[in-house]
Design brief:
Distance between the termini of chain B: 7 Å
Number of strands of chain B: 11
Order of helices and strands of chain A: EHEHE
Largest interface: A-B, 13 and 20 residues
Shape of chain B: globular
Helix content of chain B: 10-25%
Number of helices of chain A: 2
CATH architecture of chain A: 2-Layer Sandwich
CATH topology of chain A: Mth169, Chain: A
CATH topology of chain B: Rossmann fold
Radius of gyration of chain A: 16 Å
Number of domains of chain A: 1
CATH architecture of chain B: 3-Layer(aba) Sandwich
Distance between the termini of chain A: 6 Å
Largest sheet of chain B: 9 strands, mixed
Strand order of the largest sheet of chain B: 2-1-3-4-11-10-9-6-7
Radius of gyration of chain B: 15 Å
CATH class of chain B: Alpha Beta
Structural class of chain B: alpha/beta
Oligomer: heterodimer
Number of domains of chain B: 1
Amino acid sequence: MRAKVHVFLKPGVLDVQGKAVEQALHGLGWSGVEHVRVGKTIEFDIAAADAAAAEAEVKAMCEKLLANTVIESFRVELA
Amino acid sequence: MKAAVVVFPGSNCDRDCKVAIERSTGAQVEMVWHGDTALPAALDLIVLPGGFSYGDYLRCGAMASLSPIMAEVKAAALRGVATVGICNGFQVLCEAGLLPGALLRNERLKYVCKAVDLAVVNSQTRFTAGYAGRRQVAMTVGNGEGNFFADEPTLDRLEGDGQVVFRYLDNPNGSARDIAGIINPKGNVLGLMPHPDRAFEPELGSADGALLFQSALASA
């Protein structure tokens, strides 16, 4: 099974990279762009009995290592 | 007096810390590798040094906080052993859950390397007793992700309980409420972004950092 983990800073946490990218896009003429957030995606294969088991494992990985839940939120996709 | 400096792959202030502690206190300093599973016996001080542990990959300090030696560091800290995290070491302490909050990318996205003046907010800790009567000390910072963040209730609690130990007089990185260093409620785990290890002799521009190591080991 292939897991994709998306990690972003939480809405209340200032994303300075997102802000810089937003300003650059404005500078290039895309003035309608707002609320840019820069996050990361972590992909990996995982051996698991079924999707529910895989999801539980990946969530545990997120809480232990892949995300810092003080500042970040995460979303798991399995395929 | 015995201190240990933990060396992670990518630490680059580990030797500085050793020399700073030896010269300012005369203590014996042992280097401990991140993969070790035991700390030296009868330690009076544990230092997590600055640098770029694990290349700052994923998040600064994240992987270091889970390395084998950290289980021992956590256990020692919970027993009450004086523990200081400097710069990357502060990030490791936050990631390890030994201190609240996190260090974000600097507000202006720039790596900041300069001398800073700090207000000593709490000189009644075992690390800052030597600063009693001093309102201001000088050290240097060198960080790209030194922007301290915690939610508002946590910041209120830190301030209310005297856990804010150092504040920047001129905030270099956007840290919440100008916070440069915090301590745990028990008073034995200190994290700070400025480097006392780069300010332990007048030749370095400031000797104020020496007082921090002296205070930490005086209570040993």
